[in-house]
Amino acid sequence: MKRCPYCFESLDSRPSICPFCNQFLIEDLLDIDYQPTDKKKCIFCGMDILVESIICRYCHRWVDEAESNE
Ligand SMILES: [Zn+2]
Ligand SMILES: [Zn+2]
Questions:
Q1: What string of DSSP letters covers the chain?
Q2: Ligand 2 center to residue 59 CA distance, Å?
Q3: Which of 3, 42, 56, 57 is the most buried (most CB within 10 A)?
């Protein structure tokens, strides 16, 4: 299954912009064969997002970068 490398949501096609996190998909999509289910809360908007995501699909902020500054 193809997934956005930023928000980790599944994508059916190869859009130039991810419909979930609005990022330009300049890198190859992730191709993984498992179903990610673990969630974390976005520290900005509080929504549940996949733990693998580095950009929140709801508020489009970089959650990965923020975490490393903790
Ligand atoms: Zn995305
Ligand atoms: Zn968020």
A1: -EE-TTT--B-SS--SB-TTT--B--SPPEE-SS----EEE-TTT--EEETT-SB-TTT--BHHHHHHT-
A2: 4
A3: 56
